[in-house]
Amino acid sequence: MRQLSLTLALLAAFIVPASVEAQRVFHSTQSANLHTAEMLRPGNWLFEISHRFFPPISAGADALWGVDGSAFIRLGLTYQATERLMLGLVRTNLDDNVGLDARVGIGATDVGGARVKLAVAGGVAVNTDVNEVSNPSQGQLREDNEVQLYGQLLVNALLGESFAVGVAPSYLRNPRLLDVESESTLSLGLHAQGYFSDAVSVFGEWIFSEAIPGQENDSGTFGVQFETRGHFFTLLVTNQTRPNPTQYLGGSPHPFEADELRFGFNITRLLPF
Description:
Largest sheet: 12 strands, antiparallel, barrel
Oligomer: single chain
Number of helices: 3
């Protein structure tokens, strides 16, 4: 009976709503790539533009250390429909991937002196520019395999006053578009962020993923984030050039090695209409 009472008390703590500011663990709604469990205020919009430059930093001055080259670009628009429901539309020029995301806040509570916050996220994406064959030597053509699905559990915790950590076990349907048949994979995202002030923080992110042909490597990212009134500016170094959730959860084509690291950035703007 005591165990049942404790379980019900913990569930109630997560279900009882609280203000957005009081529940904040991470300052932003996303790490470099991974979602956080944070929400906006109901009725607010968030616009995002992100770049993942394709030339590696090791290209040196000839490519302006990776910045003077092509990039995979992500555009996003997010709307906080209710206190607990966030909806987003994202697009990247890699495979013309267009995704519809949803995030549902579960709640927040204190556990052992740490502020813990839970949410679930998921989405569907359509890739409208994938025209290659899967196994041309055997005349095997890719079927209509453009749709992808993903789902995540988001567990965030604030340790002390200025160090946040997150865990994101994830499911991805159809990680490799060129395969004849769709498969499912699992991955585990980990991220942490240390806040020096309300304006400056550093972060790291790692996504353990299954080895997929052409995407055999885990994704690693680190960088610095600057926060101003209504903006987040995130400067990052990564081996992951695939911007959208249904892309980066499937692994990276580049190993996490010095010669393969790329520069990138995220910029978000809050639109409190």
